[in-house]
Amino acid sequence: MTGSAEYRIKAVRAYTLDPSANAGAYFKQETNARHWLVDSLISNPMSGHERYREKRSSWGIGTIGSLVVEIETENGHRGVASGTGGVPACWLIKHHYSRFLVGEDARNINRIWDQLYRASLPYGRKGLPIMAISAVDLALWDLVGKIKGEPVYNLIGGLSRDEITFYCTTPEPLAIKELGFWGAKVPLPHSPFEGREGLKNNVAFLAQHRAAIGTDYPLMVDCYMSLTVPYAIELAEACKDLNIYWWEEVLTPEDTEGYRAIRAAHPTLKWTTGEHEYTRYGFRQMIEERLVDIIQPDVMWVGGMTELLRIAAHASAYDITVVPHGSGPYSYHFIASQTGPAFCEYVAASPDGKSIAPVFGHLFTGEDMPNNGKLKVSQRPGFGMEIRDRSILKEFEG
Prior knowledge:
With 398 residues, the protein is of the alpha/beta class. Helices cover 32% and strands 16% of the residues. Strands 4, 5, 6, 7, 8, 9, 10, 11 and 13 form a nine-stranded mixed β-sheet that branches. Strands 3-2-1-15 form a four-stranded antiparallel β-sheet, covered by helices on one side.
């Protein structure tokens, strides 16, 4: 047992969410509504299997689901965070990770993270175990901030700017431009498995958006780990006159040789990746070889705020920009504390992708949202969010 009762952890709870509640992280399992994130045509890792090509929902991107982690101290203080991993992550937290939390001082975040990571090395290192660690880590930062009465950005270095600006990931760039975002990122619809016709359709798709938004408005392309090296090189060449601001995640993050070849072929274009990479170890070679211009770790997947700060410190020694993938207020606090570019991603959370909606749906009160493409992060303690309706939470008992 360590620390005072104010910080000493009494309980760790993991919850799944009612799938009809429109609440949780990213691919919410809404039962009565379509959503562009899961129902639109997006080139993806499953595009080689025609049966699963058109919708990400068809191959189960939302199957694992969301979770909520709540950590409570002996004095009754609570920190909370949302994440990805559903029932499997809840099982890990309850049956494995809790032993490194209960009785521990919540301020010992570095030690806790190290123990969680090292204890799960035999089955972890990437994917779902790191997602579970991420949710625990974010709940710890939220808890410490609420006990201290400080926003998380003050705990990780304080404000570096009063305001952050946003680009938006959307199927409708023109609508997003009119909402005041400085740029728009669209998912690429067609994959290499659709041959020459698919490539022509991709170019036409991007040309149509470029014509609608004008020549100078930044347009980015999310390729979602679905391309090959030759295809990415050819597509980028075919789109040079479209002034694409950056090409994102054209390959899996492990394909360092592929990124090296693409950069050699197009050294003046911007390449980004990272949302599906995990921990500082996954980013090490990418950073040290300067394989991309921007790295995009997801704070809800990469290992939480603790690991994101380590990755950012490594990247700063190579002057590589860090812009987290999505993650709502968790990313906003990070960007607000950093001295690099003052912009962040907002993933259009509305069903049609044309309007602003909370990233976490109806899960929280107090979620900051962009207005006219800008935001001043609130001064509320922790990440500034509380559970809106606890009736949608189902505590994991398995």
